[in-house]
Amino acid sequence: MNPLPDKAFPPPPGFLAERDLAGAELERDPAGALLRIYTWMHLARITDNRILELFRQGLVKGTVTGGQGNEGLIIPLALLADKANDVVSFTHRGLGGHLIWSSHLCEHLHQYFANAASPTRALEGNIHHGDPRHRSFPMISHLGAMCGTILGGADAQRRRGRPAVGFTFFGDGATSTGDIHESLNLASLLSLPIVFVIENNGYAYSTPVAEQFAAGTELWRRAAGYGIEGMAVDGTDVPACARTLAGAIARVRATSRPVLIEAHVLRLRGHAAYDTCSYLPPGAQEALEARDPLPRMRAQLAGQVGAGTLEAREAELAAFLESCVKIALACPRPDPSGMEADLFAPPPPPRPWIPDLGSGPEPASVAPGAKPEGGPAAAPAPEMLTHAQALNRGLRKILAERPEALILGQDIAAYGGAFKVTEGLFEAFGRPRVLNTPLAESSCTGYAIGLALGGFRPIEEFQFADFATEAVTQIALNAATMHFRSGAACPLVLRLPCGGGLTFGSFHSQELESLFLAMPGLKALYPSTPQDAFNAMLAAYEDDNPVILFEHKGLYRRSRHPVAWDPAYREVWRPRRVRPGDFATFVTYGEMVHLAADVCAYFEAEYETGFDLFDLRCLSPLQLGEIEDSLARTGRLVVLHEGRLTHGFGAELVARLAASHFRALKCAPLRIGSLDLPVPFAPELEAAFRPTRGKVIERLAAWMG
Ligand SMILES: Cc1ncc(C[n+]2csc(CCOP(=O)(O)OP(=O)(O)O)c2C)c(N)n1
Ligand SMILES: [Mg+2]
């Protein structure tokens, strides 16, 4: 995380080397423990106050949400955590936690100043940083969304036999989000060692808790509904809070059962720096300040360790903070060049695949990172497989050869998945590598993200692509932006059974590439043949980024084709020329490849007109070189896809190709897609909605004039 040499930073006061607290110390040496807690609380408070001041001077930008009043919770918790094993994601009230967890104060200030040395390379603002290498996952703004990621991160540690605990925080306001419910249920179901912490400060921005909940405000009581332990703590009674936290953390570590802790904390400086707090009733601010635990702790400690000790520490901390601010202020502004290279994690080294289709049903029992057993075998003859079988063989091969692989999704275990793509895998590899999930796409995707950050490589099946909309935040904002925001790789395969033509109706037939690929950071493959399906599964798996694998349901069982081990499987990231021709360049993908091939054969036979037909295969990142060469030669462009026309993927293809080859174009490009409607149900209506052979021939004939 540290982009500058340590020697450039002022050495912290010696007492800040104490970043840990054992629960027993609270009993054995209460004054010593309290002094350590107070010291960090004081540093967090003066740092938050200084950042607020710098914001008011215009030197810090963005949303400054202070943790003043939250320290009585966050400091003891961060001190009690096992920083070498545990997993955490602090919220916008958790600066004190960041200070303890890892890194130098200067680095945290660099983050606020968004300067050239910022740990997020100034690509993310204020407290949205983390330290993924030390299992501190950077928050996204969407409150509640980080819970699933913590579940996955903690599980990754446990799967390696490490006695880790995951800490996830959310405010009273965030408890209303679906992610909180999904994550509590998932953690209880999977028996994950998670400390769920509600930072209840009485308000969600300006809305008091009384306006947020009808069923009482003892939020911890929800724990009973998930079959887990729940409790409330008073974050202003710091010694008592620390003792309760220590006990709860020890129980979670020992039992791997989650707990839900509602911490009553304060929000002393309003929601954010710009908040005028005009909604507070008269006297409320004064009442809050009267409950501030810091002065009380100070008075108590002064009696135990002497006021002089406290004054000396406070003076040292103030001087340390000022010297760090000075360094951070002097750091140069960030350089925008090269920013685009941060979007995707670089290509990983090739995986040592055994050169066969991978029939091996033997479960791998080695730890992640270990090399697969067995050496190269003689290349067997191709097998005749359907699209679904080819995908199944890809999954089976991955699970057999890559111990860090696991698959999850609804009904994918004993049932084999709604489309039977995972058939037999549960029997061969068992739980937890083949994991049935509840109907909780958002938290389960968050969980997969956490596993990916923890060194595993999850493959998640969505029952139908349509239900991936439940996880748009996780896919398009959390996973897709992870590398850009934090530099951490997020290797994840998201399998989306998509497409229509099967009378499945509006919510089981959609093409969602435009929706997802409008957001940066996602790769996407859309194979149209069993061989490409097998190749795409391996290529997607070994990539270090989230990759969407679009699987057209209409192709799953359409026909069998020869599938063999293909050493050039990575070619699937580039378009494939399906048939050559001189009249026009024809670009399509997915099921439409077969329709287009049929249409091209018709024009060849009837009119002796040849189309240079390309199967795009990879929708992101686009590789258009061969298609551009073709267009330069033919001067005519046709783009066909099953998705809707308006804002459809073809718009991007036509815009790019027409812009780069405008002078070569002999006529306006032709774009063919579905109608701009929800997918209608009845077969006659769906046929009228989608491109069909007859309609495509008609459109082409009219275009050719
Ligand atoms: C899902 C979501 N909706 C809306 C927002 C905008 N927002 C940011 S902070 C906030 C209030 C959050 O209240 P709470 O969860 O109690 O946390 P607190 O700020 O009080 O610590 C809101 C509405 C958001 N960040 N995430
Ligand atoms: Mg709140």
Explain briefly what this protein structure is.
By secondary structure, the protein is of the alpha/beta class. The chain is built from 23 helices and 21 strands. The N terminus is likely disordered.
Q: What does this protein structure show overall?
A:
The chain is α/β, with parallel strands linked by helices. It is built from 23 helices and 21 strands. The strands form 5 sheets. Strands 10-9-11-12-14-13-19 form a 7-stranded mixed sheet, with helices on both faces. Helix 21 links the parallel strand 20 (637-644) and strand 21. The N and C termini lie far apart (61 Å). Bound molecules: thiamine diphosphate and magnesium ion. Residues 93, 141-143, 171-174, 177, 199, 201, 203-205, 267, 271 line the site of thiamine diphosphate.
Q: What is the 3D shape?
A: elongated
Helix content: 25-40%
As residue ranges, the low-confidence spans are 1-6, 360-376
Structural class by sheet pairing and helices? alpha/beta
Q: Count every beta strand, where a strand is a DSSP E run of 2 or more residues.
A: 21
| Nearest-integer average pLDDT | 95
**What hetero molecules are in the model?**
thiamine diphosphate, magnesium ion
Distance N to C terminus: 61 Å
Q: Beta-strand percentage?
A: 5-15%
| Gyration radius, in Å | 28 Å
Largest sheet: 7 strands, mixed
Any descriptors?
705 residues; alpha/beta; 5-stranded parallel sheet; elongated; disordered N terminus; binds thiamine diphosphate; binds magnesium ion
List the helices and strands and how they pair.
Blueprint: H1 25-28, H2 30-56, H3 71-80, E1 87-89, H4 95-101, H5 105-113, H6 146-159, E2 166-171, H7 178-190, E3 194-200, E4 203-204, E5 207-208, E6 229-234, H8 238-255, E7 259-264, H9 284-290, H10 293-305, H11 307-330, E8 383-385, H12 387-401, E9 405-409, H13 425-429, E10 434-436, H14 441-453, E11 457-461, H15 472-479, H16 482-486, E12 492-498, H17 513-517, E13 523-525, H18 530-542, E14 546-552, E15 561-563, E16 576-579, E17 584-588, H19 592-607, E18 611-615, E19 618-620, H20 625-634, E20 637-644, H21 649-660, E21 670-674, H22 683-689, H23 693-704
Parallel strand pairs: 1-2, 2-3, 3-7, 6-7, 9-10, 9-11, 11-12, 12-14, 13-14, 17-18, 17-20, 20-21
Antiparallel strand pairs: 4-5, 8-15, 13-19, 16-18
Helix pairs in contact: 2-3, 2-4, 2-10, 2-11, 3-4, 3-8, 5-11, 6-14, 10-11, 12-18, 14-15
